[in-house]
Structures are given as structure tokens and as C-alpha cells.
Design a protein that fits this description.
mainly alpha; single chain; about 525 residues; globular; disordered C terminus
Length: about 525
């Protein structure tokens, strides 16, 4: 096998494998047991191929392939740098953990309703968004995610799920319209949609009102997908209505794809400061943190609390983009990876709490510390990490972005982040006190056992959180190297175009009538 063929395979497999699994599980529609078996084996394969891609990127720094012998900017390309491959790898790990949890959480009606084909279709869209080298194809993968996630939201066909799905669909479709408008304006100004080609051309153009409008449209479109202030209301209105398995995968991945798109566009294509939106991003980041954490503080349903905390934590990630220094970007990348693991784990824990106590209403639960002490231990790890207590992963993530904010003369933004951290700790303490510490309203003669398929993935994700926290240095170094690729587009451009002669040839071809 040649090196180019190997590179093609490792880049394509993280998308091709889940797409194939979606087709296989759809064929096995009437065989739920076979679907489960295929899904677990397939999720293991996804972890394996994502690991191969990770090793290839660690060796070559950036990996790129063009399909159909059509060179950029004419053909479709996949590109994997350190940021993309980190998200692909963590997606694979999370999907495997959630898939195992689903063995005991998803009912037969959910499986017959198409859970597995929709689940693998969503993973296909997520990985496609991370790996695409073309902004129009980013839109295509966003639509794949939207369609499959809508199907997953209404899989139980309850009134609450349909209501949440309508709110989810309406605002996300509005984001799609803004996205397409931005793509049209960008193509009209540059004549290309390939990330690498745009990164070459945009710095040579004058910052016209059209380009500024394009940047703002992209920010709004991706902001809707990420759930930032003031466009986040669809998230807490929909995430708590789905089964816990689906809520966990949504919480871990969907908003992060929006965050990824923001970082890709506003480092590779538009510089935050040069495009004049740095102050906007900073204010949005602060308001997202504060409004999200206040929303969580007044909730009593565990999943609604966690849903609002998704919003508040997105603000920390945008802090890195607002400051836009290498340290800040590295901190934001570290934060994204940490948050995917911790937030999905907390939703899985919410499912385990519901299974043990029979409710996810904190006012009606209690006594789990006595009846399920190991569940209490497993909850403490991601809860304290989300609040940012040392030495867990959340502490290092928050330390990096807060430190970068102080060094970048944005002390007010750092203060908002620290205040948000305190209220996050309050919310996690409230869950602990109500679900674990206080006496239950109704004593059970026999505690309900939590299946191993539920506790095992929770324990694995908790172990990853501890590993990142106690051995943070290699992860921080990886994030720093990933930030260099984002902040120095020449590295990305060179990986796509190669020799300078090839760049000139591509430009000449594109300019011909």
C-alpha cells in the first residue's frame, strides 16, 4: 500500500465506517439484538480507525487528500490537523461509551424507531464536519447532523420531544439560512470555497462592508449551532426531552461542532481582531457564561441544570477566541476536549441517577450516597471538574483561558469566568445535596441496582477526566501545537498546495473564465 493510499484511507474511514454502520443497522431494522451487536463492534472499529488517523497526524502534523484527482480549489478535500483529529478521536471514544450505555437505556421502541441508523448518521456528520476542507461541504455535514439529530430528538414521539424538536429545528434552520448567505457572499468575493484557497486570498482583499457582513453572518450562524447568547433557548428546551443516551451524545458533540466551525473560520479565514468582531466575541462570551449559569442555578431537573451549563461552558471556549493569543487558543482547545468528556459523562450520570431513584427531579430524589456510594464517587469526578476544582481537567482548562485573559488585558472577562465557576460549583453542590446527601422522600426496601452497562462507560469517562487532570502537561502541549496551526494559516496552506508552483497553477486555473 502506497503512502498516499494509506493517507486516503485513514482520512476517509472515520466518516465511511459510521456511514456504513448506519446502512447496516437500517437493513437490520427488525433485528434489535443484531443492531446492538453490530453497533458495539462498529464503535470499536471507529475508535481503531480514529486512532490510526491520530497517529498519522502526529507524524505528519497535517494530513490532506483530494478526491477524484481534482486538486483544490476544484475538488472535494479532507484535511486533518491536530484540532480536527483530537475532536475525531474524542468523538469515537465518546460514541463507544454512549453506545455501551444505550444497551440498557434505549428501549425496543427506540431501536425500532431507528435509533442506531440515526445515531451512526449523526456521527458521520460530526466527523465529516471536523475533517472537511471546504466551507460549503461544512454546510452539508451540518445538515446531515441536523436531520439525524431531529430524528433522534423525536424518537420517543412524546409531546415534550416534539415540542423541543420544533424549537430546535426552527432556530437551527434559521442558522442554516445565515450560513448559506455567508457562503454566497464569500464565494462572490473570492471565487472559491476551499479553506486553504480562502486562507490565501482573503488576506489580499480589502476589508469591505461585504466581507465584514460575511464574517458577522458566519458568527451568528455558528453561534446558533453552538448555543451562545442570545440564541441558546432551543438547547434547554430540547435536550432534556430526549432519552439520556441521546442527551449525552448531543451534550458532548453537537454544540462543539459549532464551536469548531467558529474557531476554524475565525483563525484560518478571518482574524478576529482584523475583522472588527473581537469585542463582539468577548461580550457574547461573557453573557453566554453568565446567563447560562444563572439559568442552571434556578432549575431543579438535573438535565435542565446540565443543559444550561452547556451554554455557560461554551462561553469559556469563546473566551479563547476573543483573546486570540496562542495561549488563549490552546486553552480553548484544551477546554473543548475536556468539556466533551465531562458534559457527556454528567448526562450519563443523570441517567444512572434516574434509574436508581426513579426520577430526575431533585426535589423528589435523595439517599443515593447511602444506597449507591460508588455512583456518588463517579458523580463527584465530572461535577468538580466542570466547576474547575484542582487537580481535575476542568481546573487546567479554566486556568489556561483565565490566565490568557489576564495577560491579554481582558481582566473583566476573566472575572466573569471566575464568577461563573463559583455558580457552577453551587449547581453541582445542589445536585449532590439533593440527590445523594439528603434523605429520600420514600425509602425503598431494596435499592435499585444500576446495570454494569451504565456504570462502565461512566467510570471510563471519569478515568479519562482524572488522567487529563493528573497528567495535563502532554495534553496542554498538544493543544499548544494545535493552536499554532490555527494561528499560522501558512502551515495549513502548504499542506494543501505543496510547492509554490502548484499554488500559482491553482490560482491561474481558478481565474480563467
Amino acid at each position: 500500500m502506497t503512502e498516499s493510499t494509506y493517507n486516503l484511507l485513514v482520512l476517509v474511514f472515520p466518516v465511511l465506517v459510521p456511514l456504513t454502520l448506519a446502512a447496516i443497522t437500517a437493513v437490520l431494522w427488525r433485528a434489535p439484538a443484531a443492531q446492538r451487536a453490530v453497533s458495539i463492534i462498529g464503535l470499536g472499529v471507529i475508535v481503531g480507525v480514529s486512532g490510526l488517523l491520530t497517529m498519522a497526524v502526529l507524524q505528519y502534523d497535517i494530513l490532506a487528500v483530494e478526491f477524484g484527482s481534482w486538486a483544490v480549489p476544484f475538488g472535494i478535500s479532507f484535511v486533518a490537523d491536530r484540532l480536527a483529529v483530537a475532536l475525531v478521536m474524542i468523538t469515537a471514544i465518546l460514541a463507544l461509551c454512549v453506545g455501551i450505555f444505550s444497551l440498557r437505556d434505549m428501549r425496543q421502541t427506540h431501536i425500532r424507531g431507528g435509533f442506531y441508523p440515526l445515531f451512526f448518521g449523526m456521527i458521520t456528520g460530526v466527523n465529516g464536519a471536523f475533517l472537511t476542507g471546504d466551507i460549503f461541504n461544512l454546510y452539508v455535514w451540518f445538515e446531515v447532523m441536523l436531520i439525524t439529530s431531529l430524528g433522534l430528538l423525536v424518537i420517543g414521539r412524546t409531546k415534550a420531544q416534539i415540542d423541543g424538536a420544533i424549537k430546535y429545528a426552527l432556530l437551527n434552520l434559521f442558522g442554516t439560512v445565515l450560513f448559506l448567505m455567508a457562503v454566497g457572499l464569500l464565494y462572490g468575493a473570492t471565487g472559491t470555497l476551499a479553506f486553504a484557497d480562502l486562507a490565501r486570498i482573503l488576506p489580499t482583499l480589502e476589508p469591505t462592508p461585504g466581507l465584514v457582513a460575511t464574517a458577522i453572518l458566519f458568527l451568528c450562524a455558528f453561534g446558533i449551532k453552538a448555543g451562545v447568547f442570545p440564541l441558546f433557548f432551543w438547547l434547554p428546551a430540547s435536550y432534556h426531552t430526549a432519552p439520556f443516551t441521546i442527551s449525552a451524545i448531543f451534550a458532548g458533540l453537537l454544540t462543539k461542532v459549532g464551536v469548531y466551525a467558529v474557531f476554524r473560520v475565525f483563525t484560518l479565514l478571518f482574524a478576529v481582531e482584523a475583522s472588527g468582531i473581537r469585542e463582539i466575541v468577548a461580550v457574547v462570551a461573557a453573557l453566554t457564561m453568565v446567563t447560562g449559569v444563572f439559568g442552571a442555578a434556578v432549575q431543579w431537573n438535573i438535565r435542565r441544570i446540565l443543559s444550561f451549563h452547556i451554554i455557560s461552558q461554551i462561553g469559556y471556549m469563546l473566551m479563547g477566541l476573543a483573546v486570540a493569543t496562542p495561549l488563549a487558543i490552546a486553552g480553548a482547545i484544551f477546554y473543548i476536549v475536556h468539556h466533551i468528556i465531562v458534559k457527556a459523562n454528567l448526562f450519563l450520570l443523570a441517567g444512572a441517577i434516574r434509574h436508581a431513584s426513579g426520577t430526575d427531579d431533585l426535589k423528589k430524589s435523595g439517599g443515593l450516597l447511602k444506597s449507591h456510594p460508588w455512583l456518588a464517587v463517579l458523580f463527584v469526578i465530572p461535577a468538580l471538574s466542570l466547576a474547575g476544582l484542582p487537580p481535575l481537567s476542568g481546573f487546567w482548562a479554566k486556568f489556561l483561558v483565565v490566565d490568557a485573559s489576564f495577560k491579554g488585558d481582558m481582566a473583566w472577562l476573566a472575572a466573569a469566568a471566575l464568577f461563573t465557576g463559583l455558580l457552577t460549583l453551587y449547581s453541582m453542590t445542589k445536585i449532590w445535596m439533593e440527590a445523594f446527601w439528603k434523605e429520600p422522600g420514600i425509602e425503598r426496601s431494596q435499592p435499585r441496582k444500576i446495570p454494569f452497562a451504565m456504570t462502565a462507560p461512566i467510570a471510563v469517562l471519569g478515568a479519562i477526566t482524572l488522567t487529563i487532570g493528573f497528567y495535563a502537561e502532554p495534553f496542554v502541549q498538544f493543544a499548544e501545537q494545535a493552536s499554532i496551526t490555527l494561528l499560522e494559516p501558512d502551515v495549513y496552506i502548504a499542506a494543501i498546495f505543496g510547492a509554490e508552483a502548484q499554488v500559482g497553477e491553482a490560482t491561474a486555473l481558478r481565474s480563467e473564465p
